[in-house]
Amino acid sequence: MIQIGRYQLDEEEMVLIGDGQRVLLEPKVFEVLTYFCQNHNRYISMTELHETIWQGRCVSDAAVRRIISKIRLLVNDDHKNPTYIQSLPKRGYKLICAIEYDVSLTENLADEPNVEAQLSDEVTVSEHVSAAETNDLNGETNQELAAHNPTSTDNVKKTRFKPFWILFGVIFMAVVSYAAKTWLLPASITTQVVNTLPGDKIAVTQSADGQYLAFSGQMSEESGFQIYVKHQSDFDFKPITQQAHLPGALAFSADNQFLYFSDSTQNASLLYRINIQNGENEAEVIAENYYFISDLFSARTKGGVFFAARESATSPFLIYQYDATNQRVSTITSSSQAESLDIKGDISFDGTKLAVLRTNRLSHSDEIRVIDLKSKEVITRKQVSGGVFDIAWENASNILVLRRKFLNKFNVFTGGEATKFKLEQELLNIDSNSQRVISINLGLKQKLFLEKSLPFSELETKRVLTKDIYQMRYFGDRTLALLKEKGVTQLGFIGVDTDQFDSILATEYKLRVLDVAISKNQILVKINRRFALFDPINIGLEYITTGDDIVSDAAFSDDGHKVLFTTKNYEQWHVSTFDIESKIVTPLILDARYVRPFGKNYIIGNAEGEMFYYETESRRKVALNQKLSKEPNTQWLVRDSFIYWSSHDLVHTNFYQLDIKDIENPILSKQQFKYTQVSPDFSIDANNESFLMSQTKNMTSEVLEVLIK
Q1: What is the pLDDT, as a whole number, of residue 275?
Q2: Which residue has the higher pLDDT, 255 or 650?
Q3: How far is CA 70 from CA 2, 340, 503, 591, in A?
Q4: Which of 122, 195, 285, 531 is at a distance of 20 to 30 A from 71, taking alpha carbons?
Q5: What CATH number does domain 189-444+702-708 carry, 3.40.50.300, 1.20.120.790, 2.130.10.10, 2.40.10.340?
């Protein structure tokens, strides 16, 4: 028996004892906790955990962090103010509580009921039955234990309280009957189309009283994305914007006087309002200097609006409130961690509570918080598995939780997800008032890949490939493809003229192909925020960076013997090389976030994306007076004496070619497409002859009323 703070670990039974519970640990939780105890006087790195516990098996850092999160949850530890597990960037994890071996079971724990909760690999700790519920289901109550050795006093008590047990039985049967009708009988959900206008829609909202409905969308290729509003007495929707860029979030004011909306351009989002009662439809800017606004929702009972936004690319997403009375913006939520993002929210119908969807981009988990707006205190929180799209209040007790294929009900007071509805189609978001719930379906989309012939100034289409995949890369005379299906990303080779797909790697984590070295049969990938080499012949994955590294860019050297990659240390980006044969990492260039080989020299980009020609011997840098995009879905590469890169402003996708034959006088060319139709991702073959880009043909999407029965 090991004493761990105020808990005890039974090594033989793999049981953690404390707080009146005996928790049977899953094997990996037990192994990690035991290893922490054995090495409690030092920090344990992520690499050491991979090598010691998982013994080199291909397991993501996120999976390791989930195990550590389970341990923290079991011992009620707070990662911000830890008393059990201390984490330190670049160092790892350390058990900081008192550890004592060969202790006996304490009396107060031995007298507690035997309650065991099995924690499985597939379900997070927070989704299991609470300790009290587990005690009711599996433990023996004090009365039942006492019944094994009754005394005369016990018999008197049983006689005296017999009417009580009869009443209890009646109530219990009533509860069971209600539960059978409410939870056990199949719940159903249907949708019906709300008559709007044909086209591609991205946001929808309704007023609190149901009199107004608004959506943003593109009704024709010429119109761009605009906002359309309809009063219940009107025959049709009317456009109220003409020059909107990408209005991705909408909300009515509580008195129906204003429609608030966010409009996004590259690296900037602004908050507007339009007075929909005076007929002038003039958009007034009420908040600016935000990097991106992800959600907008009504204050319900007073003037103003709430919104989810981040002020810069590196700052956390938070919830803000715009007060229409004093025309000021205030911050509602806070977070000390940039990876914790408050991306969605909704206000209860009485205007007193705020529901927040907080997602963690490292652990891929979500948390729903309910905050009292007067005290600013968290009333309740519910950790759920990742993949939540949106949340909305259904009534005073329940919050609707939208996932890709399901709609759940989360009860604020019990903390449970009482009902789970399977959706007939994928929904983009949800909006609710006391009368109804509305949404937008994702619509039908056709994915095309266009192979165009270079030179860049012409880009004539050679062939059109209809493929249901999201990324393609040239690999010599073969084609690599990434396919997403049922939450799993697969990397494989695809037949260009057939639909045959041969999978060579599958993962549940984010995967992106960065570069290929055909002569070495190596594929450079970014998987779960780590750079790795993948051997498609021997099906082997070798990580180059750790989960603690902050990474940005990577590519093979010209000869394919090394990997060039960038990491960030102490607020500065730098380039290192990884020798594939010796596994040795060597520093190469300071103050560079992006890198590509260019003969014996390099093309680099600084933290702001500004490009330079870097001469290796002299370390001389020549400014190219062009800037790379920092958006994650863009691409750049070097072929012969040309630099190619892409950018977008959410309206247009731009492809660039910079001719650097004369490094002092580079020549720029540009091709522009609509962002909603053409992705900024692209690929160019090794011979610099073919340019591969993807195009999406949008079919119409619909506004739906969601009917829950």
Answers
A1: 95
A2: 255
A3: 19, 18, 33, 38
A4: 531
A5: 2.130.10.10
